[in-house]
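so my prof wants the structure for this chain in the tokens format not the other one, which i didnt know existed until like an hour ago. anyway here's the sequence
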Amino acid sequence: MQTANLIILGLALIPAAVLMIIMLIRDKQQPEPFPWLLRGVIYGVLSAFGSMLISVPLLASGLVPTEFHNSIEAVWHSFGAAAIPEETAKLFFLWLLLRRNPYFDEHLDGIVYSVCIGLGFAALENIEYLFAAGDAWLATGIVRALLAVPAHFFFAVLMGYYYSLVHFGHHPRRNAFKVWAVPVLAHGIYDAIAMSQSVAVGLEALFGIALLFFCNELRKLGQRHIRELAEVDNSHYNKKES
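here's what i got, hopefully its the right format
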């Protein structure tokens, strides 16, 4: 492989790797075994292909527009071609990963494993985007490192948060639908704003500001969920020690 391709590959993978390390540092009480984490990343890569089993038929049938020329079409494309297929596939592989996982014994573990899947997906997607960007690979890599990859990280945090709540019996009926619906909604809104920016002539700056605002709110929500489940686990260990 040429040096330039190795550089592009590295730039594509570094954001996901950094976020993965940050997440694993937070999981300090009982770190998950590496083989299970690796399996989660592999499942995330597979979920990218699994999502195509949903998106391709929707696009081919015309139920979801393959191209969009206004914000309404951009919203429909964002949910039908991206958010719904991708988050559905991720949830399926998360269920596959955790259904017989003996190490899923802490609340934060749901987020950890979900993040593995989300970042596996994001890493593959990032590779595709950067190699397709041609001479703009550096700018594309920087923008996606700051926005798209962290967004996938926090979509995964939302999914893992509600998955853990259901698994450990915290209002399972109320939270079961949220395991799927909340990350789909967050993903769909993110893509809708980003895609609308390319078709809303004269409003590009406004949509750019809206995207930054949404990403910041998504970050704060995700961090709050991580802290909440970490505190639940810490409280459990403190009670055991006392």
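also thought this was worth mentioning. Residues 204-241 form the longest helix (38 residues).
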